[in-house]
Amino acid sequence: MKYSIETHDLVKIYDNGFKAVDNLNLFIEDKTIGGILGPNGAGKTTTIKMLTCLIQKTSGDAKVAGFDVSTNPDDVRSRIGMVPQQISLYKDLTVRENVELCADFYNVDQRIKDKKIDDLLDLVNISYAQDKYVNQLSGGMQQKTSVVASLIHNPEILFLDEPTVGLDPTTKRVLWDLMLELNDEGKSIILCSHDMYEVDKICDSINIIDSGKVVANNTPQGLKDQLLKTKEETNKNIRSMILKLEEEGTKGNEEKINHLRASLTDENEKVTVMVSNITDEMVEAVRDLEVVTDAKHVGNGRLNIDLKRSETSVNHVITAILSNGGNIASIKTNDPTLEDVFVAITAKQRTEIKNGRN
Fold it and tell me: 112: which of 105, 133, 291, 350 lies 20 to 30 Å off by Cα?
């Protein structure tokens, strides 16, 4: 398998002794969109700085586009583009002048430079503003200019650090579409963001970094499924402990049992079904199902249902509605969000550090 980013036991210790990155093992497949998440101070920025050859590693190995960041930094730099969170354009130059400056820095062939700039300005739809000074632009237009500047030398890998912070929803979606389009053209995209919806929407894989380590990596859906499985296994273990204490007798164990019961997480699956011709009979049919713990018609054909989680629970609900003549317009399950995953994983990491297991 070919990787755009590959690190083995990567370490960065600053002069003051602080270990910002601690044996980091990070792998992002070539020509995919890889998301990097982590709380503030987790080591994300330091990692990106090492991968983009801005700072030296302390130990370990790191390859970008197949080249070692220490022994072949020029090869790495020529193959990457960077869109930083803080706009790093010259405010007293025009949009086009900024891009021309970057083109000259990367020795873009003068015979094709103007056409490349024109094409990229068209790609992000800011050709009309090419003669405006950067300090006259909105935040979104400045970010688009930064993207053009980062793409002028046709890099294989594009790093984006919080690219949509402070942008309006419309401009955000324009940049999301641009990232997807660039990826379709074969570029690898490395996205650092705190916007969980953004990462969930466009990333093929996600690495969560905390305390300088990769503490979780999977597809967005894989991380959510993993959280559900972890909750189910935890609840199973807690119930087993409760049963054992009850078999010993409740005398002296009541407080422990109550504490364990309080730590059980909700295993019900919440489902919303929109039925265009809903009737009381349909609602009652759903309520009568063994897998249903609660069902409420909240108006406008919306039926909110609490289900005992199983592979067939939703099928039973659908069958009950259809068998009573219902027309189902939509079904939505309330699965864990990426934010739920992020909070759970980082909280677990903090607990393990506190208990001295990391």
Answer: 133
268-333 is classed CATH 3.30.70.100: yes
Can you list the alpha helix ranges (DSSP code H) found in 85-167?
A: 95-105, 110-123, 139-151
C-alpha of 315 from chain center: 30
Give the sheet arrangement for strand 268-275, strand by strand.
292-299, 302-308, 268-275, 328-333
Average pLDDT across the chain, whole number = 90
pLDDT score of 77? 94
24-28's contacts with Cβ under 8 Å and 24+ in sequence apart are 24/60, 24/209, 24/212, 24/213, 24/214, 25/214, 26/207, 26/209, 26/214, 27/3, 27/217, 28/3, 28/4, 28/188, 28/190, 28/205, 28/207
Tokens of 29: 């497949």
Residue 185 · residue 29 · CB < 8 Å = no
Superfamily classification of domain 3-219: P-loop containing nucleotide triphosphate hydrolases (3.40.50.300)
Q: What pLDDT is stored for residue 233 in this prediction?
A: 82
Q: Write down the pLDDT at residue 232.
A: 78
